[in-house]
């Protein structure tokens, strides 16, 4: 049965917004028909759909929900958030969102390259020019990302997640054993800089907001994973497990480090417990830092790969065209990530720019509109609650637009000031620009 856009296949069970209960739905057997998916179950080609929900959870842990997943499983021909944008806004919106998607994950790959090069720098006591460490890191990331299927990368994500988790845990314990933060003045009085209510400048406030926002904004990277799951309907289960672990860990670890370091949290934070534990943490977390960049690059490359070969027999065929296209995607996008990482070498600014210019539209505005598209009946629905939910989603879209414009302005101004104040030595500089705090 070919997919027919005029006749939707039985959707996932809808969640009642008032109670959170999932409605019971008797599914049409055709809902699992292979034609509904981007990658087909095959015995004579490349079998992509081999990822179980447990491994998907770990992949999501390293990428970091539900609205996008439900929309995708209702419109199973969607491989990425750009395909979803086409459903709700046509081909022009698809290309805009597709461009933002690639930019977002190339920038995220760049931040992964900076993180990995910072770790190598710390372990080697800056034994070589930082640019060379960044180039070496980019090579590692590209090589790991070139593994073709999420199922194989899934094994890397286990090692990556465990290594980063242990590394952060070492730092969390380490900061509590010091009399004062490693980045604080080591003699005389000092202030941790706590404020119940702070009054930052608009530029500083928007940059900080975008930096924090990125930590949970990468949900658009979940979507290509669904296409490689054995049972795409297990997506919600995987996300709930992932988000429970992520939110509990973020809250616990962040509060402890901030309590002991205040304004002197290093950036990246693995350097917050002093030079010795910094080396220990980076040594333990090096695999995870590589895998993080690898996943971001893999997601971006897989999007381009599918766009190029989607209607071709080479999509799931071990041909020269198939492999040549795949390696071209990872190498070219990885090279772009390396160039951008060296052009904007301060880790926090690269993260913030990703949040404002890319993830504000992708993770705030578009998911809200996806929900509106599938719940248009709420506009004239019975009951005040449905009307409140309807207009709340429009408010979210406006909030995303504000974050995009104001956040991008704030980050650009901060980057300009950083160059003017000498915080950034220049593009492709040998200086280690990652060890900032604030």
Automatic annotation (TrEMBL):
List membrane-spanning regions. 100-124, 130-148, 155-177, 197-226, 238-260, 280-299, 320-340, 346-370, 391-412
Q: What name is this protein filed under?
A: Amino acid transporter transmembrane domain-containing protein
Task: Tell me which GO cellular component terms the UniProt record holds.
Answer: membrane
Where does this protein come from, organism-wise? Answer: Amniculicola lignicola CBS 123094
Write the record's keywords in alphabetical order, separated by commas. Membrane, Transmembrane, Transmembrane helix
Q: Name one Pfam family in it.
A: Aa_trans
Keyword Transmembrane present in the record's keywords: the answer is: yes
User: Which InterPro entries does this one have?
Assistant: AA_transpt_TM
Q: Where is the Amino acid transporter transmembrane domain?
A: 95-413
Main subcellular localisation: membrane
Q: Which GO terms describe its molecular function?
A: L-amino acid transmembrane transporter activity
Q: Which domain of life is it from?
A: Eukaryota
Recorded family membership: Belongs to the amino acid/polyamine transporter 2 family.
Signal peptide range equals none
What is the membrane topology listed in the Swiss-Prot or TrEMBL record?
Multi-pass membrane protein
Instruction: Give a yes or no for keyword Transmembrane in this entry.
Output: yes
Localisation? Membrane
């Amino acid at each position: 049965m070919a997919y027919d856009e005029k006749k939707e296949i039985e959707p996932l069970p809808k969640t009642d917004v008032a109670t959170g209960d999932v409605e019971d739905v008797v599914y049409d057997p055709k809902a699992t028909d292979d034609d509904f998916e981007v990658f087909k179950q095959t015995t004579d080609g490349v079998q992509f759909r081999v990822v179980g929900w447990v491994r998907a959870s770990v992949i999501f842990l390293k990428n970091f929900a539900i609205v996008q997943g439900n929309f995708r499983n209702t419109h199973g021909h969607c491989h990425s958030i750009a395909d979803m944008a086409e459903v709700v806004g046509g081909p022009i919106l698809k290309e805009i969102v597709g461009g933002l998607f690639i930019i977002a994950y190339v920038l995220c790959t760049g931040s992964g390259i900076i993180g990995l090069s910072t770790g190598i720098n710390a372990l080697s006591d800056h034994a070589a020019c930082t640019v060379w460490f960044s180039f070496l890191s980019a090579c590692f990331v590209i090589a790991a990302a070139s593994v073709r299927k999420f199922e194989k990368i899934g094994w890397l994500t286990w090692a990556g997640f465990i290594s980063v988790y242990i590394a952060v845990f070492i730092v969390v314990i380490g900061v509590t054993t010091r009399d004062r933060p490693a980045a604080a003045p080591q003699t005389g009085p000092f202030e941790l800089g706590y404020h119940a209510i702070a009054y930052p400048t608009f530029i500083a406030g928007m940059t900080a907001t975008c930096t924090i926002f990125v930590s949970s904004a990468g949900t658009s990277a979940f979507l290509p994973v669904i296409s490689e799951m054995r049972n795409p309907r297990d997506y919600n289960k995987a996300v709930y497990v992932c988000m429970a672990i992520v939110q509990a860990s973020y809250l616990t670890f962040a509060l402890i480090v901030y309590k002991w370091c205040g304004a002197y949290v290093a950036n990246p934070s693995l350097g917050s417990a002093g030079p010795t534990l910094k080396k220990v943490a980076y040594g333990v977390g090096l695999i995870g830092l590589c895998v993080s960049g690898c996943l971001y690059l893999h997601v971006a490359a897989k999007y381009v790969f599918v766009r190029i070969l989607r209607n071709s027999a080479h999509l799931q065929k071990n041909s020269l065209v198939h492999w040549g296209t795949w390696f071209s995607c990872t190498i070219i996008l990885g090279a772009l990530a390396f160039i951008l990482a060296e052009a904007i070498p301060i880790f926090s600014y690269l993260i913030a720019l990703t949040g404002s210019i890319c993830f504000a539209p992708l993770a705030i505005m578009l998911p809200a509109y996806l929900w509106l598209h599938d719940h248009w009946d709420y506009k004239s629905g019975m009951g005040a609650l449905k009307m409140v939910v309807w207009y709340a989603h429009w408010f979210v879209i406006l909030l995303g637009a504000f974050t995009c414009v104001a956040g991008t302005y704030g980050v650009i101004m901060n980057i300009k000031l950083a160059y003017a104040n000498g915080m950034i030595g220049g593009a492709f500089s040998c200086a280690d620009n990652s060890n900032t705090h604030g």
